[in-house]
Specification:
homodimer, 235 residues, mainly alpha, Arc Repressor Mutant, subunit A, Tetracycline Repressor, domain 2, 2 domains, disordered N terminus, disordered C terminus, DNA-binding
DNA sequence: TCGATTTCCCTAACATCGTTAGAGATGGCG
DNA sequence: CGCCATCTCTAACGATGTTAGGGAAATCGA
């Protein structure tokens, strides 16, 4: 039965399967969840609000999805699935890694809620996420890393992307907030002299910091690789 | 009035300020919150459960604390405050950075819930957190970094610690879970050949990966520093 | 010493949340 | 036509963060 407030009569209300289009599917739920998360943030993601977007009531979602956490996990993996995991083979593995991680970061920044989720949840390890890790790790393996060094390199690069994305989104504050933060810091400049002298912790140029940090990391990786296989060519 | 289930008579029940000890303070609330978070995780942190631990009811907490988020922020900062931010001046700045970040990581691993919080919340920037950042950044500044390079170096190292701590705690799963994960991955080994060949994504040796990744990063930082100030000594 | 005031914990209650139970409508298939 | 699976609904549960406001103890001014 229609809600009391629904002015549409029974015949004007959309019936089930009006066209061949599915009325409610996991895909449509996840799409709506991503949109809702983008617009209102993770705190305002509610099963009822999500259902509203789909012109449905909350319990209806549970026929397609077991739990709200599942929705979030699916939404995160959908973000990873946005950018095709291109397996470009550039002249140098370094370019490949940079390309992959930059695309990764771009996708994460487009959905600021996404970066913080994997840090908290257990196995957010969906197929799209795995595809990305496969690309990253295979690139490093082709470069010559193996065993514990491969594992360390993979996680170091992974942490750099996820960390900088979540740090950036978490600290992407308004000018007003930044002004207050700096002001408070300056009143304690005796305790935090370096921070106060260098403009608090808020960065103007997150992209620059990401790129520079990545360059540091890749420099170190390249050096280790060179010290092991002196002058050796790629696989 | 006492709860119906309280067998203690009015006179045996502890009265307010029985001794000079405060019955309920922000400090005691935060201590209880850290203990509760350690024992049961962040999902089970509830104002009511927290109040129970303090032999009090939930609304009483709101006299000392504005919101639950405040409690979490205070708890996180308390973790940073556990380890004294030693300003050791070793022979090489590299040792100082390693010492600081290792102590940082140890504190985060002792409280597995802590690493994931700053990624999500806006300004988890408490005094103890700032003290740590001051130590880190001042060490880097003393080493010779300045301007955007200093900022990039600070954030890169910060992200490495926070990222590896949260990755480790998030992926610290049981042997059973790991077995299932690897099993599922092997059934799709055509899609993720590298991951399947290198033992999934679960690392046995997180400490080793942290140390190696940090070494990569420091190698890169040192190289950049050397290329700018060739042969120059520290400040 | 006493009344006023502040401090602080209480009970009661609200709106909202994730989730379950189960009724009922729709469509396909025999 | 009647059975059955599919899918959405209403109703409701317990738990959550938080507010309103009562009331007792401690403190303070005179």
């Amino acid at each position: 039965m229609a809600k009391a407030g629904d002015v549409r009569s029974v015949w004007l209300r959309p019936r089930r399967a009006t066209r061949g289009e599915p009325p409610l599917t996991v895909t449509r739920i996840v799409e709506a969840a991503v949109a809702l998360l983008d617009e209102e943030g993770i705190d305002r993601l509610t099963m009822r609000r999500l259902a509203d977007r789909l012109a449905v009531v909350a319990p209806s979602l549970y026929w397609h999805v077991d739990t709200k956490d599942d929705v979030i996990d699916l939404a995160v993996d959908a973000v990873f699935g946005e950018v095709p995991a291109g397996t470009g083979h550039a002249a140098h593995w370094r370019e490949d890694v940079t390309t992959v991680l930059t695309a990764w970061r771009t996708a994460l920044l487009r959905h600021p809620w996404a970066a913080a989720v994997p840090a908290r949840r257990r196995p957010t390890i969906g197929p799209n996420f795995l595809a990305w890790m496969e690309v990253l790790q295979s690139t490093l393996a082709r470069a010559g890393f193996a065993g514990p060094a491969l594992s360390a390199a993979t996680w170091a690069l992974y942490n750099h992307v996820m960390g900088s994305a979540s740090t950036e989104t978490a600290l992407h504050i308004t000018d007003e907030e930044r002004r207050i933060g700096q002001e408070q810091l300056l009143t304690h400049r005796d305790r935090y002299p370096t921070l106060a002298a260098n403009g608090y912790l808020y960065d103007d140029d997150w992209t620059g910091s990401f790129t520079a940090g990545l360059a540091y990391l890749l420099d170190g990786l390249e050096a280790r690789l060179g010290s092991v296989f002196k002058g050796a060519s790629d696989q």
